[in-house]
Design goal:
The complex is a heterodimer of chains A (about 325) and B (about 375). Chain A is mostly helical. Chain A is about 70% helix and about 0% strand. In chain A, helix 2 crosses helix 11. Chain B has 16 helices and no strands. Classes of the chains: A mainly alpha (about 325), B mainly alpha (about 375). Chains A and B meet through helix 3, helix 4, helix 11 and helix 13 of A and helix 5, helix 6, helix 13 and helix 15 of B.
Chain lengths: ~325, ~375
């Protein structure tokens, strides 16, 4: 295969791997911009993946699976809100609780419902989000360079990939152009000012978490019903944390966050491709090293060595209305 | 909901509130049992018998307890300084690497009485080193310790996969693990020690690191409540601005606390690698670092509470394994779920019942 084809295929894989990261990172963006730390992205994605696989299998419909995943992930987001906003609990502790709770509960329920060691049965294609071939893709397939680019990279993804990338400008618009977005940014920086203006801090944060739950549910459904065809134990495998890293890397802004997700997805795709391959002049690069790059990059960024990641000011602090 | 006016009496705050939280966690667990069609009472009986009912089971319970004391103390120590160390998992993993490397390098040359202390120190040092960087970055460069420790958990995992599949792998083995250490590096099992004293006790993985864990509890108690440094640590935890005015340097305290926390978590390696596995292998840390969070929250960050909470989790782990035998619908994952519920109710929803209690108790007083 020539270099160009390899490059296009790697980018194609990048897009596939990045899609759930983008959805989850945008979910985290809403929550953290409102001042609520969300390390439960992982748990909500896992819950979404499990629910989507169960319901898609039982109803034989990917869309039903998606809807159920959104409902469950949304409920967990509300639980997070109940603990962090209503009861002013520790946001990190609440997030950890949700992650661990889902890791256990998904297997417990999966085992009882399907008797397959906690997995769900394989999904038939009718219960999955499958590839969509965009108009004209077949026709231009054999056109050199551009045809391949269109056929492999732009066309041939499932609907959730397109939704993920379409969500970026939508979220951008919500955050920077809508009234809700203005208040959302304000409440993450200075909740007291928002409160003084007569706007409910709690309700704003709850709404941010609602959006968060919806997006996480989609990310989860993507993993079990689009990328794969069943739910298996711990199948999110740290992608929630990677989305969190991408959120920090993109400095809590939609478009840079998308590029961070693409970068992490690219590293992942490259790691797969480089498995056991001798790189000229370097030798075999350990796959583990490439896979850890997102985490290393995030640590380095947080340490202020490459630019500065400035979090919303009020992040992590429960708001107490003065009386 | 607004901040409840009025304070609670000490006993309600220290005993009643946590008790209500734990009961809530177990009530929800009971509901899940009913949902999957198993009797919660029956399950509790099997678990209690499995954990305490016979010698081998009890040995296993205390063996798990040992790990949870280490990770629970690790989380608690950091908590007292206002730091949330969720990197116990990675620190425990790397601590085990330290113990393993010491044994692999030296087990042919040294007698047990030098090698074992060296390996114990190595596990603490490796754990401390793995926690030092997040601590340093938080103290000096302002990156949040929660995020960095999450990242370091993944880095530890990748590092171990690399080392065990490329560098330390025993060529004679199919699985990714190192060679077995020479017998001088093995910690004595309790059942062997008891046999030496003429007491027969069934075989279990329980080894002398259990006593090391208890000693650590006493030392942590002394350190936090009876030393000047412990005072500084608690001051930084409750108000780091005030600490600065009291002449304390929070950055320095933070770095050392994280090292201590990492060292305690690293000692899991002593129990697992030196005590039981006698070789380095993948994933021996098996979530113990995360259980430490639940243990610390449940034990209210006090060594006595941590021992009790560790015992409870030890019993849940061992009883859960027993349960998996008797109830085909249940696996160890049930314990993971219970752990999540305990963290939720004892940690995140810690004060949920507070307004209610304040109302009840103050109306009684009036």
């Amino acid at each position: 295969m020539d270099f160009y084809v390899i490059a296009v295929l790697t980018l194609d894989a990048t897009v596939r791997v990045s899609a759930p990261l983008i959805l989850a990172a945008l979910a985290g963006l809403f929550s953290e911009r409102s001042g609520v730390v969300d390390i439960s992205l992982e748990g909500k994605m896992l819950a979404g993946a499990f629910t989507a696989a169960c319901v898609a299998y039982l109803a034989n419909s990917a869309w039903m699976g998606l809807a159920a995943a959104i409902v469950v992930s949304w409920s967990l987001a509300m639980l997070h809100g109940f603990a962090c906003i209503t009861h002013r609990g520790n946001q990190v502790v609440s997030g950890v609780a949700i992650n661990i709770l889902v890791a256990g509960l998904s297997i417990v329920l999966g085992l009882v419902w399907f008797h397959q060691g906690g997995q769900t049965p394989n999904l038939p294609n009718t219960a999955r989000f499958t590839e969509i071939v965009l108009p004209g893709a077949e026709a231009v397939k054999n056109v050199p360079v551009l045809g391949e680019l269109y056929y492999e990279l732009i066309s041939g993804h499932n609907i959730l990939v397109y939704i993920a990338f379409a969500a970026v400008p939508v979220v951008w618009w919500i955050v920077y152009r809508s009234r809700f977005g203005l208040r959302l940014r304000a409440v993450g920086e200075n909740p007291k000012a928002v409160d003084t203006a007569g706007i409910s801090v709690a309700w704003l944060r709850y709404r941010a978490l609602m959006l968060n739950g919806v997006l996480c549910g989609m990310a989860g459904a993507y993993i079990s019903t689009a990328q794969n065809a069943q739910f298996v134990r711990d199948m999110t495998a740290g992608q929630g944390y990677m989305a969190l890293a991408a959120l920090i890397f993109g400095k809590w802004r939609p478009v840079p966050v998308m590029f961070a997700c693409l970068l992490f997805g690219f590293l992942d795709a490259v790691a797969v491709r480089l498995q056991g391959v001798e790189v000229p002049g370097i030798g075999v690069v350990p796959v583990q090293l490439i896979e850890s790059l997102p985490y290393i990059l995030t640590v380095v960024l947080l340490a202020g060595f490459i630019g500065k990641a400035i979090a919303p000011k009020a992040i992590g602090e429960p708001y107490t209305k003065e009386r | 909901m607004s901040q409840p006016a009025g304070a609670l009496p000490g006993w309600a705050n220290k005993a009643l509130l946590p008790a209500l939280n734990i009961i809530s966690a177990f009530l929800v667990t009971g509901i899940v049992f009913l949902m999957i069609g198993e009797s919660p009472i029956e399950a509790a009986k099997i678990m209690l018998y499995g954990a305490f009912g016979y010698q081998e089971g009890f040995g296993y319970t205390l063996y798990y307890t040992t790990n949870f004391i280490f990770t629970g103390l690790a989380v608690a120590v950091a908590f007292h300084a206002g730091l949330f160390n969720i990197g116990g998992e990675g620190q425990a993993y790397i601590g085990g690497l330290g113990a393993g490397l010491a044994c692999l390098a030296l087990d042919a040359y040294l007698p047990a009485w030098i090698l074992i202390p060296l390996a114990v120190i190595a596990s603490a040092l490796f754990g401390a080193a793995w926690a030092f960087l997040p601590g340093y970055l938080q103290a000096r460069r302002g990156s949040h310790v929660v995020i960095t420790t999450i990242m370091f958990n993944f880095l530890a995992s990748s590092l171990m996969v690399y080392l065990l599949s490329h560098v330390l792998k025993d060529p004679g083995q199919m699985s990714s693990s190192s060679r077995e250490f020479a017998e001088v590096a093995w910690l004595p099992f309790i059942h062997n020690m008891l046999a030496g004293m003429g007491i027969s006790f069934d075989e279990s993985p329980l080894n002398v690191s259990f006593f090391l864990a208890l000693v650590c509890c006493v030392l942590v108690w002394l350190l936090i409540w009876r030393t000047r440094w412990g005072y500084e640590l608690r001051t930084v935890g409750s108000n780091s601005t005030a600490a600065v005015y009291a002449g304390i340097k929070p950055a320095k305290v933070i770095i050392w606390v994280m090292c201590l926390s990492g060292a305690l978590a690293g000692l899991v390696g002593v129990n697992e690698i030196l005590g039981v596995q006698h070789r380095l292998l993948l994933d021996f840390s098996a979530g113990y670092g995360f259980v430490g969070i639940a243990v610390a929250l449940m034990g209210r960050n006090h060594p006595v509470g941590i021992v009790l909470a560790s015992l409870l989790f030890g019993a849940l782990y061992q009883g859960g394994a027993e349960l998996a035998f008797d109830m085909p619908n249940i696996t160890r994952d049930m314990v993971v779920m219970i752990q999540g519920l305990i963290i939720l109710f004892c940690g995140a929803l810690e004060f949920m019942y507070r307004p209610l209690l304040v109302r009840l108790l103050s109306s009684k007083a009036a």
